[in-house]
Amino acid sequence: AQTVTQSQPEMSVQEAETVTLSCTYDTSESDYYLFWYKQPPSRQMILVIRQEAYKQQNATENRFSVNFQKAAKSFSLKISDSQLGDAAMYFCAYRRYTGNQFYFGTGTSLTVIP
Amino acid sequence: GAGVSQSPSNKVTEKGKDVELRCDPISGHTALYWYRQSLGQGLEFLIYFQGNSAPDKSGLPSDRFSAERTGGSVSTLTIQRTQQEDSAVYLCASSLRTGVVGRNTEAFFGQGTRLTVV
Q: For residues B61 and B42, is the Cβ–Cβ distance under 8 A?
């Protein structure tokens, strides 16, 4: 079974600084999708960024970027120029290329310090 | 609709009562998921539906929990004889099928139903 591990239950960052959230996963598949979701206090889960495993290039979305290391099964999220609105719970998720089930990590709570 | 819609947003019920939670997925999404999230915790998978296939019920915590999806669209999660440990936020999500290069494959979530059993 696929498992997703987020080893940092809590992280904090100074406003305008950069922070990296870690995620590792376990799979025997070669094709799959990886996601980072953000859940603010409003509890609405919002997609931050996605990565297709067959793409070698790391995905970027404005201030958000990933470091995808397929061989190491690592998928970290980097947030640059952190803003107060980035404070939220962040979940890493995995989905098989031909599957429907999503596997979520346990989340990392990010605090942004003014 | 434009997004995944869940109702009610909040539900307070007495222990032992039955509750029904509703999820209206994005039109055209064949996959629908239910998750449970206890306070400050991660997502606990409950059940998912894919088209007309038999649902994967492997995450349902007890036989008090059941779900159905009518006409491949709206889904209802039913909890019978509610217990205090059922108090949580219940999240619904929908997605397209995978297996197509370039297709958006993320799950789209509703805002959840906060269930409180008193």
A: no
